[in-house]
Structures are given as structure tokens and as C-alpha cells.
Amino acid sequence: MATSFSTIHRAGNSILVFSLSKLRTAIPSFRPSSRSLAPRCLSTSAIPNSYPRLPSDPRFVQQPQNPNQWHNNPHGHRPPMAPVNSPPPPPTPPPMEAPVDLAALCREGKIKEAVEFMSKGAHADPPTFFGLVSGCSDPKHLDDLKKLHDLFIRTPFRADLQINNKFIEMFSRCGSMSDARRVFDRMPDRSMDTWHLLIHGYASNAQGDDGLQVFEQMRRVGVHPDAHTFVVVLSACATAEAIEEGFIHFNSMYKEYGISPGIEHYVGLIEVLGKSGHLYEAVEYIEKLPFEPPAVIWETMMNLARLQGDIDLEDRMEELLVSIDPSKVSPKKIQTPPRKRRLGINMLDGKNKLAEYRLPPVIVKPQVKEQVYVPDTRYVLHDIDQEAKEQALLYHSERLAIAYGLISTPARTPLRIIKNLRVCGDCHNAIKIMSRIVGRELIVRDNKRFHHFKDGKCSCGDYW
Asked: Are strands 415-419 and 450-454 parallel, antiparallel or unpaired?
């Protein structure tokens, strides 16, 4: 009697088929042993087509086995395997990227790229951090400088004195004294240079009153000023037009602190008088000096007379300067080919991008004329009629940059305008009116200084 017996044994991800056929005799009880049948019946080809096949998943693919692997097992059966529905192994992590050379990016001036890498996890040591901060002296890098400071306060060396001082210096150069003061207030330790940098920053940003308040705070905490301290203090007095206070600090140098005034201190006091409009008082003070005035004093007076528009005094000071130092002859007095006219260019810093604006051929008159604005046509030197002069004033690029900034930036946020030429008096008056109308701070950096327009006033006190 022919009898066939088939058994399918499933264990893990392998399939064993046991087949017995052509048995002539009846077997009362048959229990196949896995030990005896495994070596010769390890096959999947005998699976009938009626059995469902497993999906083509790499987990179900039978791996090559050693024929003697089962015999070496003392229990006589295959070791347990992972279940079919077990979760897949975790993915292999991507290979680690090569470390970024932040120092090389710093040397190449790629500040923005370095900041992006640091935001993604790259670490910088103190020298590299110092170099990156030093590269942010231009106002267009103000956003990168702020990101660097946010990263710096998370580092273990956030109390480093030199790096904090550099942050104060760079924020001052970028015209953001609020950020410079924030760095100053968070510093656990301060040196004499820290106080000097903050006072000088206020003075260079036409905020001399704030600089004088920092000096008073310096004296209250018991810091003894030195000679350089009074240089920056006199600079703050000149910006604030504090003539009386400037003389008080100048006289206190020797009386209270025993510091003998140097040439730089006399120059600072002359600037206090000259920047306040007292040019002839400054000349009288120079003539009464206990020593022969050097060339640097006459050069200072010449520059002050030029800024104040006193041409006669400027020529007189230039003659005295050349008589002392012939190398100071002005190039304007030498017949040279005419220089190429520079175009008025403005750069508006906002939304992490820089835009450049040039003089357009046609422009519509703004509504600022209705707000007590009267065009000052003295700044138009062309021989044209009055209406054409008013139209020419509206062509100035800083006005276009401010107009674009007002419509493309959020309300109540400061605008920073960078101009490669000196701002004219008419634009200066117009921007003061704009700041009062829109209620925003307008920071304009021309080729001479910073102008902080706010609530209809400028930090320069209408003197630049």
C-alpha cells in the first residue's frame, strides 16, 4: 500500500519540508526525528503550489547554513530565531562630516558661512570667536554679529574679557549701542578698556550724554580714570555740546587725579568748542596755550572750520598748517585731472539682504511736503528754476531707501541706511520729520558719522 506523508515545519524565517513516499508497509506510529531528517530534507522546492508563498521580503530569505551547524547543538534542534513581525533594525547613521575649518572661513572673511556652520553645531575656540567678531565691523554684518553673540553666551568661555570687549567695539561700529550696552551689563568682570570702549561708542554714535553718564557710573564704582579716559570723555562732551562740563573734566585731570594734559587732551577740548559752533573762541584758546601749537591742532581747527562752513577761517588755518608742515598741502590746491563723479548709493540693511538704490529718472513727490516740510534749495547748486530745484532734492537716494524700508519692514522696527556720501541739510531735515511721522528710529550712516533720528530729533544735534 502506497502512502505519502508530508509535514511542513515552520520555525522563524526558514521552512522545512519532510516527505515520505512509496511506503509498502503500514507503520503503526511514526514520529520523524529532526536529527535524522534535517540533513537530507532541507529543501523548499517540494512545497506544493497550493500553499501560500511568503512575500518577497529580505527577512524571509533563507541564509546559507553550515550543514554541521545543527549537529553541533547539544539539544538537537535549531536555535530560536527572531519572530517574523519583529521591527526592522535601526537605520545606519550617516557618515560623520569632516570638521569645518572655522578659522579658515574667518581669515577669508566668510562671516555668514561660518555663522551658519556654528548654528548647525560647529564649535569655535576663543581665538576663532575673537576673529569672527572682529570681522563684523561693517554695519551690514550687524545681524551676523547678533547671532554670534547668541552663540557666544552658550559657550563655556562666555566670560572671556577680550571677546566681550570686542563685542562692545563691533556693536558700536555697527551703530547698535543698545546691544553694546547689553553686552556691557552682562559682563561679570570689566577692565579699563571696557569702560573706554563703551564711552567712545556713545560718543561716535552722537550719544554723548549717555557716554557722560557711563563716566559718572565709572567713578561711582571706584574705577580710577587714566589719561585715555579723559580723551574719550572730552569726545563725549564734544558730541553732547557740553562746553562747561568739558572744561570741568579737563581741569579735574590734574587737580583730582594728577594727570598732566597732553596734546590729545587739548585737541579734545578744542573740538568741544568747535563742534558747538564756537570757532573763534577756539582760536583764542589756541593762541593762549602755554606752548607752541603743533600741526595737529591747526589741522583740527581747519577741519572744524570746514564742517561749520567758514571758508575764510578754513583757508587761514590751512596756511598756518602748511607753514608748519608742508606735507599737509591739500590736494585740492594742486592742478589735477577732475575726479569722476561718484553716484549716490544707499544700502538698506533689512530682512537679511542688502539692496542698492541709485537715482531714478522720475519720482513722485512724497506726502511729506504736507507735514511742515519746506525744501531748502540752497543745497541745489545747479542753475535751474525753483521748481526744478525742489524736484532735484526729491531725487536723493537716502529718501528712496527710507521709503522702501518703511513699506517692506515690520512697523516700529529701526531702519539702518548706509550712504557713501555726506547727507545734505535738506535730507537731514526731511528725515527728522519722517521719524516723527512714522514713529520709528531711522539710523543713517554717511561718510562722516552716524545719525540716529528719533521723534523728530537727530543725535548729532543738527551738527555734522
From this structure: unpaired
Question: Any bridge partners for residue 445, and if so which?
Answer: 418, 450
The whole-angstrom separation of Cα 464 and Cα 308 is 8
Average pLDDT per 10 consecutive residues for the chain, totaling 464 residues? 44 43 44 44 41 45 47 49 54 48 83 90 89 90 93 93 95 93 94 96 92 95 94 94 93 93 95 91 93 93 87 90 83 53 54 56 49 78 82 85 90 86 87 89 86 86 70
C-beta of residue 116 within 8 angstroms of C-beta of residue 132 = no
Please answer whether residues 269 and 252 qualify as being in contact, where contact means their C-beta atoms are separated by less than 8 angstroms: no
CA trace torsion 396, 409, 451, 397 (10° rounding): -10
All cell numbers assigned to 435: 521719524
Q: Which helix (H) or strand (E) holds 18?
A: strand 14-20
By C-alpha distance, which of 380, 348, 354, 355 is closest to 445? 348
Residue of 419, 432, 430 lying closest to 459 (CA atoms): 432
- What three-state secondary structure class fits 396? coil
pLDDT recorded at residue 381:
77
Burial of 445 (0-12, 13-18, 19+ CB in 10 A): buried
pLDDT the model gives residue 344: 56
* pTM, to two decimals: 0.60
Distance CA 288, CA 273 (A): 15
Distance between CA 417 and CA 349 in Å, rounded? 7
Q: What is the DSSP string of 188-236?
A: SS--HHHHHHHHHHHHHTT-HHHHHHHHHHHHHTTPPP-HHHHHHHHHH
